[in-house]
Amino acid sequence: MKVSGRERLSGDTVPELLLFNKPFGVISQFRESAHGTTLKAFIDVPNVHPAGRLDKDSEGLLLLTNDGALQTRIAHPSGKIEKTYWVQVDGVPTQDQLRALRSGIDLRWGRTRKASVTEISPPALSPRSPPIRYRKNQPTSWLAMTITEGKHRQVREMTASVGLPTLRLFRVSIGPWTTTGLESGCWRRIRVNLPHQSRSKHRRSP
Question: What pTM, to 2 d.p., does this model score?
Fold first, then answer.
């Protein structure tokens, strides 16, 4: 996986990764915002930054790290790290709609890569606040979607383009890291062993 020239964020400290189960409505930044609650309300750890983003109206796994090389490896599209989402959509998907999502969708920024898309039973998630708006006599369905790009609002645009608007979006995993055992609004810290060459290459110059 190619790593660009991003410097480490905290000198020679051991690379760490924080796994955060982001609630709905939280903005993926530490800087205070007039538009809502930020990460600062949940995480009091110095020198960590999000590796990628998760929209305010989406939930689930957000990774944060103190290491610039690791941050780039996770977030950059060239890494092709798999990201899996549980997606509640408005309607019941047809086989044609599922095939279209799997094979690639032409969006405003280009064609998406092939994706893994399957129908699933409703997952055991914490109730969302506020809850989604249900419409009487309008069924909803859940999909598990795995993509390797993660463009801005990509999953929402993909489902909308085939006539299945997204009602709720929960990111359950990024690569080997998942929300398993993490309640909404909680986080845990893990250590990550990067190859020595990758770490030393991105140290700050003296």
Answer: 0.85
Q: Do domains 1-79+177-206 and 82-174 have the same CATH topology?
A: yes
**Distance (Å) of CA 195 to CA 19, 69, 192, 200:** 21, 11, 10, 9
Q: Please say whether the structural domain 82-174 has been given the CATH code 3.30.70.1560.
A: yes
Catalytic residues: 55
- 2 is written with which tokens? 């190619």
pLDDT tens readout for residues 46-87:
999 999 889 999 999 999 999 988 888 888 777 789 999 999
CATH class label, 1-79+177-206 = alpha beta
Give Cα separations from 109 to 151, 152, 158, 191 (angstroms): 9, 10, 12, 36
Query: Is the CB of residue 37 less than 8 Å from the CB of residue 27?
Result: yes
Q: 122: which 2 tokens? A: 């409703």
- How many Cβ atoms are within 10 Å of 124's Cβ, its own excluded? 5
Provide the residue ranges of all domains of the chain, joining segments of one domain with +.
1-79+177-206, 82-174
Give the pLDDT confidence of 139-196 residue by residue, as tens digits.
Answer: 999 999 999 987 889 999 999 999 999 999 999 999 999 999 999 999 999 877 655 4
